[in-house]
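User: I'll paste a sequence; please echo it back and then give the predicted structure.

Assistant: Echoing your sequence first, then the prediction.
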Amino acid sequence: MDSKEIRKKFLDFYKKRGHTVIPSASLIPENDSSLLFVNSGMFPLVPYLLGKKHPEGKRLTNSQKCFRSDDIEEVGDMRHTTFFEMLGNWSLGDYFKKDQLNWIFQFFTEELMLDPKRIYVSVHRGNKEKGIKKDTESAEIWKKLFQKKGLEAKDVDFSEKKGMQGGRIFYYDDKKNWWSRAGVPEDMPVGEPGGPDSEVFYDLGEDLKRHENSPWKNKPCHINCDCGRFIEIGNSVFMEFLKTKSGFKKLSQKNVDFGGGLERLAMVCQGETNVFLGDLFLPIIKKIEEISSFKYEEKARSFEIIADHIKAAVFIIGDEKGVSPSNKGQGYFVRRLIRRAVRHGKQLDMFSLSWTKEVAEKVIEVYRDVYPEIEGNSEFVYKTLEKEELAFQKTVEKGLKEFAKLKEKKVIDGERAAFLYQTYGFPIELTEELAKEKGQKVDKKGFYREMEKHKNLSRELSAGVFKSGLADKKNKTVNLHTATHLLLSSLKKVLGESVSQKGSNINTERLRFDFSCEKKPTEKEIKKVEDMVNETIKKGLSVKKEEMTIEDALKSGAVASFKEKYPKNVSVYSIIDEDGSVFSKEVCSGPHVKNTAELGRFSIIKEESSSAGVRRIKAVLKEKDKN
């Protein structure tokens, strides 16, 4: 049974049971700064789990694109991936434990034809301090389900200390059987929903239990021990609690949030014990074999890292809100994925330029029918990969030679780690990974101290040099300076609030304005920005200046593009629209015009890429329209 059939079976199964199939959300969260990437199917549905009515009803199902940056270091163990699809179903205050556990067991054993003898489950042990009871209710439901298949299902506790004990149902604490976006109850912020869960595990066979160097060799084996024998294939979360200042209280509705990794389900349905041999990865692995000097079995870890990382990069760059490589935020992880893949490509003798594009083409071929957006954005994906690969190729060889000089050191000091970063573009994680392979350690605290010194020096060097990017204070220059404020505000309104200023240069002839934007704006969007600026100019709005502390400025909602460069007391320039709303409010040292009517007609003459994830606009002010 291939992945397409599994995906379809799941959605059809729940559709027949009154669920509406909803599309996968973007990998890039919308209006939520708590997470860089969507990492679970429930993430886009949080408002509805909290009680808001969903337009499609109380029963929903989908296959959601997910990315978990925390798993980057885990890739290479045959089962972990950073990008994956989560098959999910939700009850928003409708059915609860009995229906959910019955249905998911039916789906696994009757639709996917998984052997019930190889299925084991876990439930929540309870937490008396938090007022959360032991989930014996789920345990009893599971006992009856296994009994129908002719299996006695004994429930046991503390298997992590005593081993399996002949059980099939196992109790675990919050670390294993509690789900929220923030993790265990202690880590949850006030206002966050969560709840106990019941996970389903599949037995891959006792022969995978131990190997000579396994850290679990002499420890009790149980379904959650990560020794390799058992793999989680599904998790039903009973989301009924809300974190409050005084502890946990029940939500207004009892929810079900199920998630099952498609890649893992494909693996077990296809009789494999390695997720990278399932049909969602095998074509990519074979493509890497074609362009490398090795077979998968010879250097499996490098193959898995390349296959996973390029796939993840394709989906993030090719997303409808695509992100390009950069040195911070979401772009940092894209850069890290690509560079880590390129380094492992060198270990496979993949020296030809643009091999990342060849692997990306195979990724798109595997997924084009399900996620057409990545094919629609394929040229952008290929160009971005090629650009990043080429840039890293130029420095990585020199960096690796420099690193080789440190082979006698037991600990790589912070100064040397910072040098590798600043000179050769080695992120600290890459230096740590290289060091780990050689049995060395890295002084991370020293690294961050050195980076802070570098940042402080940069501030000193730039102090007094960049005064709002103005070349002088002539009238034409000042006019263009005010126009940049209108431009930034318009860009945010048209392209989204994630847009931020990255730099500007203004003289009497033109303004040059750099801004963060992970996808190339369309001609229509640029025209809309230009029109919005001109409409504001025509209104003749006053430009108001206020003096306040930087803290008060930020609290008031003023945009501060370069927070670390501002003194304690700052000037804030506001442009208030005719209806009383704030059109633009920025921390700025000035100078500015008194009224937007002074500016004339604003015209964008060029929009182009400046660097990865940064776009550049060049614009001029022409004479005022006579009408």
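The first helix runs from residue 3 to 15. The two ends are 69 Å apart (CA to CA).
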